[in-house]
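Lecture notes, unit on binding sites. The following record was shown on slide 14. It pairs a sequence with zinc ion.
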Amino acid sequence: MAAITAWRSDPDAPCRCPVCGASGLAIVDRSARPYAEWYVLTCESCGLDATVHIPMAGVPET
Ligand SMILES: [Zn+2]
């Protein structure tokens, strides 16, 4: 989740995999705004393929 936060604040910066720590984490924004945010995280180093779902209701804008 920290990787998502960092990516949202600086989308152009290289992301680190939350699992193996390797840089080059790929994050795809598949959000269905304004209802929810979906991010697909894929890492070639460890094979991570995770979907992160962030409900937008009650989530403070930062
Ligand atoms: Zn990884």
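Take-home: The longest strand covers residues 36-42.
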